[in-house]
Amino acid sequence: MTQLRPLSALIFAVVLLAIWQTVTMQSLVPAVLLPSPASIANRIFTGAGTLLPNAASTSLVAVGGFALALVAGLGLAAAMALSAWLTRLLYPNLLLFQLLPKVALGPLFVVWLGIGVPSRLAFTTVVSVFPVVIGTLAGLRAANPGQIRLCQALRASLWQIFIHIRVPGALPYIFAGARIAATLAFTGAVVGEFISSDSGLGHVIMNAASQSDTALVFASLVVLCILGAALYGLVGLAERFARRRWRSR
Amino acid sequence: MSRLRGAVSGISAVLLMLAAWEILVRALHISTHLLPPPSDVAQALIDHGDLFAQHGIPTALETLAGFILASFIGCAFGVMLFISPLAQAATMPWILAAQIVPKIALAPLFVVWLGVGAPCRMVFAVFIAFFPVLIATVAGLSATDRGALQLSRALGASPVQTMLKIRLPFAVPHLLAGLKTAATLALLGIVIGEFVTAQRGLGYLVMLAGSIDETALMLAAITGLLVVGAALYALVLLAEAVFARWYGAPIIVGDFG
To answer: Is residue A5 part of a domain?
Structure first.
């Protein structure tokens, strides 16, 4: 039974696709509303000329924004971990900000930076930075106080304690934040393209939807899912590598 | 006492931030078009009170409805997946995979399916928000204390009784965590819906203010969204407090074995 479990998920997907294909082939549902899986697969190949450059544009913004969010988030959290009053000043504001759907700030970035790539990069960074800050902050606080006291007694420098105790202890938390940030980065990039853009998969989706080219909408979504999963997978790989390197749990 | 002190320190931190914003904008002569000071934003909120009522109420109601629907649907599906291990094994990997892809991108598809009205935005919000509730329900039901289950079996409780009296109460802390995520996601879904359909609502107002270069109005609309988000979150906190009182707080899981 336990060996059958991963298989059952696969069977479920195949059956679902088969039903979807049959229903759409019998024209029970108009293709404008729900194109068949086969026609979506076909549209990915016929639309590759449109999809590829726009996927590259979306990936650039998402990956760039994610990288910036990592740098900014780690820096901010490290500063907050070092300074208690900075934490007391910033943390309540961060929590308040968490209640706001950050994507609502999209049009503000258009006012500030126009509709180009820099604007969407900045927006994506802001959308995805929060989980990194909160994860890193939680991680840096999670270090075992006994270990730190031992190191202090053994006259370890602040830097040694930071690099040998605090960072390995924080890694799982940092990567938990980074994984959320990776999914938010694509959300930010696509919402940025929804609001105003002349390139990217979000732009393709909006255009295709307005022209009732639903197959192209689905094709773009498939590409977007693959890209999102790829970035998530890369973060997972980086986590395995980092944990081995730092001998973290 | 410490909670009161925490609240005071939190509120003063927010006020300090607003004051710094106000002073910096005025001292550096930053164009109010780029970044209006908080006083301008407050002024816009007061001046356009009727506009905010007109656009804020639909957003708040749609978000609330989407959140409640997502909670019930997520909970119901969670219970069903918990009862049937086969269904859980078949669907759970896909549900978890759906968490890592940007579901927001499906918004235009919902417009194709359901038009540009409120139902479309609400269905989209439910679609976005119900996943964390479902996952939390399954996790919560699976995390029931072994000792409590053994005790209920020994006392001859029926499966339905065990579900209602043991498993569900034990699942509530997990469920509440899922509901907190769902509350923010429901608002996110409504706002994205308002962005792509653009007829009414605070999300529409943000877009409109952006297109007519009224940055103060835009920030006022964003403040409105923050209020809606905070109100919904407070509602979940209230539910948490009520539950804690019913079942005796704090809920100590793992105190039976």
So the answer is: no
For residues B118-122, average pLDDT: 91
Closest approach of B40 to chain A, Cα-based (Å): 16
Asked if B16 has any chain A CB less than 8 Å from its own CB, the reply is yes
- Give how many domains chain A has, as a whole number: 1
Cα B53 to Cα B57, B64, B224, distances in angstroms: 6, 16, 10
Residue A2 has a pLDDT of 52
Token pair 């007109």 in the structure block, residue: B54
**CA distance linking residue A199 with residue A83, whole number of Å:** 42
Contact A9 B233 (CB under 8 A): no
- Asked if the Cβ–Cβ distance from B104 to A6 is below 8 Å, we say no
pLDDT per residue as tens digits for the range A61-96: 999 999 999 999 999 998 998 888 888 889 899 988
Question: Sign of the C-alpha dihedral, residues A51, A52, A55, A61?
Answer: negative
Does any domain span residue A108?
A: yes
Nearest to B173 by CA among B246, B103, B228: B246
| DSSP track, A32-90 | TTS--HHHHHHHHHHTHHHHHHHHHHHHHHHHHHHHHHHHHHHHHHHHHHH-HHHHHHH
Give the domain ranges of chain B: 48-247
For B48-247, CATH gives 1.10.3720.10
What average pLDDT is seen over chain A? 89
Verify whether the Cβ–Cβ distance B105 to A221 is below 8 Å.
Answer: yes
Residue A247's pLDDT band, with cuts at 50, 70 and 90, is low
Query: Nearest by CB to A33, which of B17, B34, B113?
Result: B113
Q: Distance between CA A249 and CA A241 in Å, rounded?
A: 12
Give pLDDT, residue B149.
84
Q: Give CA A236 to chain center in angstroms.
A: 12
Q: Which residue range is the domain that position A75 belongs to? A: 53-247
pTM value is 0.89
The highest-confidence range among A244-248, B162-166, B213-217, by mean pLDDT, is: B213-217
Label residues A22-60 b or e (16+ Cβ within 10 Å = b). Answer: eebeeeeeeeeebbbbebbeebbeebeebbeebbebbbb
Q: Computed from CA positions of residues A205, A208, A212, A217, in that sequence, does the dihedral angle turn out positive or negative?
A: negative
What CATH number is associated with residue A76? Answer: 1.10.3720.10
Please give the ipTM for the structure prediction: 0.87
In the chain, the amino acid numbered A17 is: L
Q: What is the DSSP letter of A231?
A: H
Q: For residues A64 and B151, is the Cβ–Cβ distance under 8 A?
A: no
Q: Is the residue at A17 inside a domain?
A: no
